Amino acid sequence: MNNIDVNLIDDLQDLRNQKEELENSLKAVTGELEEVEKQVIENFVNSEVDSVKRNGKTYSLKNETFASAIAEEKDNLFDALRNNEAGELIQEVVNANSLRAFVKELKTNNDGDIPEWILPFINVFEKTKISVRKGA
Known about the structure:
Layout (H helix, E strand, L loop, with lengths): L5 H42 L3 E4 L2 E4 L13 H10 L12 H13 L28
Antiparallel strand pairs: 1-2
């Protein structure tokens, strides 16, 4: 006898649909926001205005500096940082998704078990989720 509350399944699907709609809406609003912000910046520059007060808020231009490493120059960047007393900026990281895939592969190649050599160095947990496929 089937004791599954199908109303919960419907709720699950409704929430997944709502989440997808919200994510799509957020992407659309983010795109619109970026476009309008470009127009406002252009308007500030063309009008030679430093700031505008509107509805209790002050809007003004602000320059921010962003930097990223050039992939092919990463080793040279690290050397330059170390040589200029900024070595603390350097961090070794393991991408969480790559580690997850690697552990999954280890399990596949080890009869479903994670080898002992790596266990002391990682946290592992299982999470049960609902898989959804379109039916016939």
